[in-house]
Amino acid sequence: MLRRELELLERETESALITNTIEGIEKGGGLLLVKGEAGTGKSRLLSEVRTRAVQAGFGVTAARSTEFEQDFAFGVVRQLFEELALRADRTARESLWTGAAKQAREAIETISSAGEPGDFAVLHGLYWLTINACQDRPLVLLVDDLQWCDRPSLRYLAYLLPRIETQPVLVAVALRTGEHATDERLLQHIISAPALVELNPKELSAQATATLLEQVMDGEVEEEFAITCHRAAGGNPLLLRELGLTFSAQGLSASDRNAGRVADLGGLAVADLVASRLMALPADCAPLARAVAVLGDRSPLTRAARLAGQDSISRALECAILLEQRGIVRIDEVYGSPTLSFVHPLVRNAVYESLDRADRTTSHHRAAILLRESGSPAEQVAYHLMRIPATMDPVAVTDLRAAAAAAAARGAPESAYVYLRRSLDEAPKDDERRAILLEAGKTALLFDVVTGARLLQEAWEGMGPVERADIAPYLGMAYIYLARPDAGVDIQKSTISGLPATDDDLRKRLQACLLSSSTWYVPGREDIVDCLPELRQLPHADGYGDRLLYCAVAGRNTALGDPSGVLRARETLADDAFVDQADPNGPLACGWWSLAAADDDMSIASLDSAVKRAHVGGSLFTLASVYIHRGYTLLWHGDLAGAEQDGRETIRVGQLNGSAVTRLLGCTVLAEPLIEQGRLDEAERTLAEVGVTATTCPPGPVYLSLTALSRLQRVRGNYETALEIALQAEEACRLYQIQNPAVADWRTLAALALHYLDRDSEARVIADENLDRARRWGAPRTLGRALRVSGLISPERHRIGLFEAAVGVLKDSPAHLEYAKALVDFGAALRKAGHRNDARQPLRQALDLAARCGAVPLSDRASAELAASGARRRRTALTGPGALTPSERRVADLAAHGQTNRQIAQTLFVTPKTVEVHLSNCYRKLSVTSRVQLPGALGAS
């Protein structure tokens, strides 16, 4: 029997699934998961994936995770793309780094860069690196022992998988069950990918056991011997193979008379079997194997030989060949030099565990010194320092902090934190300890808020007043994420009170952070609001602290429904240098929110620029904030497709950074456009994913989530439930002192619910208050909506006037969806009053606008009203440039200027699939068949 057939015994089902998956890659990518216990042949099935892919002419690259390298930032990613680059010529290698992919180069190569990319920027770059690699042919990424994959690489896979459903990329992974994963949350996110094919190789049957042993032992295997071996090894292919090799090594045949000896040998662990093989080799082979176990897989032969104390490289190579012949290591060549890896993780574990604790410590320390002296990257040195007792190496802190800096530069905060945490164990001096505490705390906030807050609190307590000011904004936000907002406010207030009276700019910076966080996240703090009059009266200035404060004051004013801060916020956000420097999670976000609520078009331009910056150098938390604010702004403008896309991206970012607040707001952003598009079941599921249902509600800032749920229930016709939830939203808004209907429109929802319950007198009281507040705020979207709602619940004699006023207010505003709603209600009121001819024009406009926004229910209502007015039915699908949504128009313009789909996707930070969908819609609406016709079609407007 051929070796390949032998290794795939009783794997016909798995082989067929592999074949089908490989054949389907060109139609779209996904995940192939091989899952099972150690030794069941998972690696062999991955190897079969590689073989089939190579035969099909696909690109293939592979990596293996190890439990010893879980803290090595992007270790698996580097294996994947180093192998890919190694086989490519210079031109092809450079083409991998074109476009956004260059942002990921720091994660793969040890090179200097002009700036440090954030963790999201690296993920985005790695995604485009993958897309670049599959342009000429489909690509298969193989990852063995996924459970030990380092966190940054896991995050890459989690980011990649949802984005390759239309790309020719297959991710094939092997996952060992029963092992503790590096990050269980990320792992579960990965293996829950929609496009998943799962293989579960089982133990071999007694018949297959006999066949396997016949090949391993090169002779006949008698029945009782095979059955006994099968029972002893539990049908595990690896253990059966090791058992057969051990019998052969001892000169024992596979006869029934030797079945009694199976119990003795079969009970041996892999460690004993490996030890027996090493003992049979020359004495200098075992030290080399132990050196590889300490250094890790892919160890250069020269380095392993030095650690093993072997001066002769030729003799070391002879030992390596002997180890390979006995099935212990594998010899590969990298850039023409031999490297050593173990044939299986169980074999490496066996060799490593044969070292006692003292030998392991000594070997790792010697390895650290060896690597340090040879100028190896700091992370390689730190890998070994992490495995020796603290204070053993006098210069460990220097190496560990350098490793942390390198990991941070690669966008791997988890790995950076591990090195910093260990640095603290090295008992650094007070000043250095405080610096490390601060650095570790800020780093931990990116993935573990509990740990980050604890470290920052310790750093804050040990520092002076001015130094505390650097910590307070981070610590305050950490406590907000931990649902301890009052603690965050108290920290910030205490820091401010301790500042020197002369440090005016720093005081303003902290006051801005305090005010911004308390506005949206901290309920019931009257003491914060009390300072507003004083802050509003501050003289105009251009310092950084002044600008932050202008944004924060504008945000608080916006919550209260006071438009007085909007103009100054607009002036502040017009400064690109300031926007580039400010944190999108703090006062800057208040500025965006104020402009968006005021229907100021500048908010979109500023947010679009912020998205670009976040993709180039931002963190996951930074990008989440930008997507949340842009998503709501697009929603309020009526760009439902754009709002939906930003909502989905926010949720994905929340899944990657583990932030419950991010996921809550992301699901709310997504639910709103889904409701307007008539996708009610999907909207309900989206809100339920974060615990927002008719009977449950999570803690935190849920005022926006509750208004979305109330709207959903009203559209479904559940008016009592809609009213009840609207009143819950009122309570949430009262706690957070949010009075502006432009932000949370619970009054609109309550008034409409009461109206549909025939409680119009109560509805009018709420609607009148809503209209008063909308007039005070003055923005067209809010005022137009308030006028329209008042019209709906007013006596018929007043309706047409109120609807007409709403249409007039909204006509020239960016609130296209709200304008369409007002036009429908105006046209319907005219028709019902007998003015059928006058009704048709606003209804046609409403139909066009609703179709452009993608508001299907509203479009259907406009169409029905038009028919009722006696107008001829026409298709609702618009044509011409005016029919394009803002997102479609952006794509069409870029395509008309000659950009390819990939270039457009990178420019707009979307997937190629999104570009394809938008272009398809553009072709249909513009009545063209190719991009070369786009300039003329767009110019026709």
Topology (elements, then pairings):
Layout: H1 3-7, H2 12-23, E1 30-36, H3 42-55, E2 59-64, H4 75-87, H5 90-95, H6 105-108, H7 119-133, E3 139-144, H8 151-160, E4 169-176, H9 184-190, E5 196-199, H10 206-217, H11 223-233, H12 237-249, H13 262-266, H14 270-279, H15 285-295, E6 299-300, H16 301-308, H17 313-325, E7 329-334, E8 337-342, H18 345-353, H19 357-373, H20 378-385, H21 396-409, H22 413-425, H23 430-444, H24 449-461, H25 465-481, H26 485-497, H27 504-521, H28 526-529, H29 532-536, H30 544-560, H31 566-573, H32 576-581, H33 587-597, H34 602-617, H35 620-637, H36 640-657, H37 660-676, H38 680-688, H39 703-715, H40 719-736, H41 746-756, H42 760-777, H43 780-793, H44 796-810, H45 816-832, H46 836-853, H47 856-868, H48 886-896, H49 901-908, H50 912-926, H51 934-939
Parallel strand pairs: 1-4, 1-5, 2-3, 3-4
Antiparallel strand pairs: 6-8, 7-8
Q: Could you explain the architecture of this structure?
A:
This protein is mostly helical and 941 residues long. It folds into eight domains: 3-199, Rossmann fold (3-Layer(aba) Sandwich), CATH 3.40.50.300; 206-268; 269-355, Orthogonal Bundle (Arc Repressor Mutant, subunit A), CATH 1.10.10; 503-605, no CATH class; 619-690, no CATH class; 692-786, Serine Threonine Protein Phosphatase 5, Tetratricopeptide repeat; 795-876; 886-939, Winged helix-like DNA-binding domain superfamily/Winged helix DNA-binding domain (Arc Repressor Mutant, subunit A, Orthogonal Bundle). 65% of the residues lie in helices and 5% in strands. The strands form two sheets. A five-stranded parallel sheet has the order 2-3-4-1-5, with helices on both faces. A three-stranded antiparallel sheet has the order 6-8-7. Helix 8 (151-160) links the parallel strand 3 and strand 4 (169-176). The chain starts with a helix and ends with a helix. Residues 111-115 have low confidence and may be disordered.
